[in-house]
Amino acid sequence: MTALNTALLALDELTVQRGETPLCEGVVLNLAAGSICHLIGANGTGKTTLLMQLAGLLPVLSGEVYYQGAANLPIQPLYVSHQLGIHPNLTVAQNLTFLLNLYGISPRVTDIDDALAWVGLQGFETISSSHLSAGQTRRITLARLYLLTHEVTPLWLLDEPFTALDVDMVARMEDRLRDFAHEGGAILMTSHQAVAVANQVSICPIIWFEYYSQSTFKPLRCYPP
Predict the structure, then answer these.
(1) Which of 60, 102, 163, 168 is at 20 to 30 A from 121, Cα to Cα?
(2) For residue range 59-101, what is the model confidence (pLDDT) as tens digits?
(3) Is 88 helix (H, G, I), strand (E, B) or coil?
């Protein structure tokens, strides 16, 4: 079997572009189950754009995306972005319940309580989300990671998941990402911070990848920002 057939997510000569402007071309990545790929680069190099393409929010105009060995197979990843998708008129617990319902999960009250406690929002269950700070609001979206398993969402696309988090919460997040990979999931993420779950491999001066586990790669042909 080829790498494209065995990878959970494979990119073959993908072009990352914003509108008509190419940001990076020739992207090749084979991301196996159990792997974490940390995408690093300066602002404007296409990190978020790539994740949005893979999440189906932007079109892929050049190259191929293979999901579980099949080209053009709809991907249903967990996508955590800067656009939090939190409804200000719902309570904290209602917002988390809604986000989980999108993946076919009907959580118990105790599940919601445990997930919110994990992100430091215990006692906020009935508080209106409009009363939260930006950092607290972001924690609602991250609370999904506590409950979603690789059977439900085998691929996580995380855009700057550590933004506005304190040191303790970052460590908790890293533990969860590591556990998710050990369970058989795969993660493609961006971060301006060093991430303890990956070993850095420099690919080019503009964009490079870090790998936590097995993946294959080749140099990227990138345009400067």
Answers:
(1) 102
(2) 888 889 888 877 766 667 899 987 778 999 999 999 999 999 9
(3) coil
Write out the DSSP string of 154-200: SEEEEESTTTT--HHHHHHHHHHHHHHHHTT-EEEEE-SS--TT-EE
Rounded to two decimals, what is the model's pTM?
0.83
Report the CATH number of the 1-77+153-225 domain. 3.40.50.300
Domain 79-152 has CATH 3.40.50.300: yes
Q: What are the domain boundaries of the chain? A: 1-77+153-225, 79-152
pLDDT digits (tens, 9 = 90+) for 107-126: 999 999 999 999 999 999 99
